[in-house]
Amino acid sequence: MEEISNNLNPNTQKVRYALLDELRGFLVLCMVVYHGLLSLYQIFGWHMADALFNFFTPVEPYFAGAFIVLSGCMCGFSRSNTKRGGLCLAFAVGVSIVTIIGSQMGLGRIDIYFGILHLLGFSMLFCGIFNFALKRVNKWVGLILSAALFIITYGIPRGYTDFVDLSGIIPLRWYSNGALFPLGITKETFFSADYFPILPWFFLFLVGYYFYHFHIIEKFSKITKPSRLRPLAFLGRHALIIYVVHQPLIYLICMPFTF
Length: 259
Hints:
The protein is mainly α. It has eleven helices and no strands. Helix 7 packs antiparallel against helix 8. The longest helix has 25 residues. The protein is globular, with a radius of gyration of 19 Å. It starts with 17 loop residues before the first helix and ends in a 5-residue tail after the last helix.
């Protein structure tokens, strides 16, 4: 991941915010462990891994949600969200190709069609392209509206919400259209091992985007000091690469124990 820059002053040297690196590293580690447990059971049949996977499943959306908010916040530090978004989407497409091939080869249901990398890539591109419009929105309005839209649309991938009648917004026949899965509108038979559709998760990304504009991070200079948790900071600085390569590494490490 690229260095964090301070956009408040274009002449300011690039600064590493240690706490942000550590937090991102912790969240990446949680997601890697979660996906690793799933792979260990589906591919290698380790039943203990399945038990641990089911144990951690209820909290997984909270870790993923925190990572998405943090990623939205990082948009404020980036020099080019369009570049970051394009790179992230390129990796996401590669992950999809590899996992679909792996699924066809009988490695289990590991195919990913619109995972968290797809969501982040789309969200970064959107914020990069439409930053001129997004930054005109009052930060309080943007934050509150984004949070409200996330809550309202949270049930769309399941075909219902507790707040609005979906039939008045999204015709139910759309759920039979297999091409709308990036939006969270899917057939009953749709499956993606990692699935974070644009609705509702993009709005959570925007929560982070607008949270940055309160500039809370820059006001607390202590978090710019050297990291106290260097392993987590390392994971945070290399989050994208680690997220992409962790599945192949798990496979290579565990493969000798399956014979």
